[in-house]
Amino acid sequence: MQNLEMDAQFLLELKNEIKSHYDALASILMEEVDVYQELLESIKQERSILLKPSLEKIHESNSRKETLLLKARMLEEVRMKTAAKLARLLELDSDRPGLSDLISHAEGPQKKRLQECRFLLHSVLKNISEMNKANKLLLDSSLIALEGCIDFIADLMCTGSTYLKSGEVNHNTGNGRLLRTRG
Asked: DSSP of 98-155, one letter per residue?
């Protein structure tokens, strides 16, 4: 009879510990969602900065994003440790269980809360990816335009190659349409 009571007590403690880890996992996921929401807002602000560039504002934006990414990495590490502990308690094979694996073993309100967290996290990460692609396209277009301007100025500064009377190419005459280095 005493063994049965000890087993029941052990199972109750195990169940409470598992519940506690699920609650911690959900809290960590919500913190990650908050950090990634901040990052998304920062990336949206970055777009307006890129449209009206200011070196100081670009540095501020980059610094803010670096800080948010560091927070996200730290939260990810905590989440991975919590998930690993939970996997051991649930006697799962993996040391790095996926969120889907852990959710499939959850019950009731915890399962629903974790599913909501996963959905929110997926959604905000998708939005971040889309905004990053849009900002990259803007930067790539700006870079192409800038390279075109540099090429145009270079063409104005030197004429390029011309031919000598001997038929050989004269690469550096020093004469451009705006600037002449001789005569």
From this structure: -HHHHHHH--HHHHHHHHHHHHHHHHHHHHHHHHHHHHHHHHHHHHHHHHHHHHHHHH
Let me know if 136 is exposed, middle or buried by CB neighbors in 10 A (0-12, 13-18, 19+): exposed
Question: Shortest CA distance to 173 belongs to which of 158, 152, 183, 151?
Answer: 158
Please count the other Cβ atoms lying within 10 Å of the Cβ belonging to residue 107: 11
Segment 69-99, tens digit of pLDDT: 999 999 999 999 999 999 999 998 877 889 9
Q: What is the CATH number of domain 2-147?
A: 1.20.58
Alpha-carbon span 134 to 126, nearest angstrom: 13
What are the domain boundaries of the chain?
2-147
**Confidence (pLDDT) at 172:** 57
Structure token digits, residue 45 = 């602000």
